[in-house]
Amino acid sequence: MNATKNIMIVGVGGQGSLLASKLLGKLLCNEGYDVKVSEVHGMSQRGGSVVTYVRYGDKVYSPIIDKGEADFIVSFEKLEALRYASYLKKGGKIIVNSQEIDPMPVITGAA
Fold first, then answer.
1. Domain limits for position 35
2. What DSSP state is assigned to residue 111?
3. CATH number, residue 103
4. SS3 state at 38
5. 10 Å Cβ neighbour count for 33?
6. What is the pTM of this model?
7. Nearest CA-CA partner of 16 in 76, 63, 102, 66
8. Which of 10, 37, 56, 94 could crosslink 80 through cysteines, CB 3.0-4.6 Å?
9. How far is CA 63 from the centre of its chain?
């Protein structure tokens, strides 16, 4: 019996976070795992925060990952890595792209 593994893919709208999670989910399904993929935030606005959950194992009952439960966080942007770091479990791994994208209030001049 293998334990459920939890992967979060985070970034901003327009970077491909949702596409990456769908591709990873498809790959894991093809390997015979039960997989749940869930988009939680964003995608409605280019530049807005986006987080997707990919959970896989012998049997997965929920697509949601709670704080402290992520085995891996893959971040397409530095600020988003920091925003979701509390979701990483002890001993988990985080992979961060060095790209920095200013938040929308900065881009629009509101902040």
1. 5-108
2. -
3. 3.40.920.10
4. strand
5. 18
6. 0.83
7. 76
8. 10
9. 12
Tokens at 97, concatenated: 């792209």
Q: Could you identify the residue written with the tokens 């999670």?
A: 21
Exposure on the CB side of residue 110, measured as CA atoms within 13 A: 5
Bridge partners, 21 (sequence order): none
Domain tally, the chain = 1
Which token pair is 101? 């994208």
What residues form DSSP beta bridges with 56?
Answer: 5, 35
Structure tokens at 43: 């995608």
> What tens digit of pLDDT does each residue of 22-44 get?
999 999 999 999 999 998 765 45
SS3 of the chain: helix, strand, coil, percent, to 5: 25, 35, 40
pLDDT at 109: 67
Dihedral angle at the C-alpha atoms of 17, 20, 26, 32, nearest 10 degrees?
Answer: -100
